[in-house]
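Below is a concrete protein record.
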Amino acid sequence: MRNRDLYGLLQTLNGLSNVKGKTFAYAVFKNKEKLEKEIEVFQKLQKPPHPDFANYDNERNLLCIMHSKKDEFQNPILVTSPDGNKRYDIEDMETFNKEYQELIDKYRYVLDEMDTAQREYNEFMENESLLELHKVKFEDLPEDIDANFLNQLKDMIS
């Protein structure tokens, strides 16, 4: 199991809080406790944004507003992109791209540092987890557990 899989396992265990059977319930309780502590450590490993990122983001937003098409009240027009997100409808993409590249160059040190931090965190999340789960025997699983939950719990079944 990879570090990133621990989030899903915790979510699964949270959905099993009312399952009966003291041996299984104890395993759920112990593993939730372990997972919460481990995930807390993961969250501390994730570096906060660079202090200058807010400046970059504000300037980027102003650049988008400045180059966007405007409605009759001079408000920027937003359109829905293919991925479902709202974005500014840019009027002159060539000029915008030139100025945006200048902005990226200005804040290269911020963006590079944040990219490096995110890449390192993502690599860590792909590592095999060292967490020792509290195991439960197959015969101690609840009778009404389905195949989906069984698959999600496979790492805590001995």
Notes: Helices lie at 5-14, 22-45, 53-67, 93-106, 108-126, 147-152.
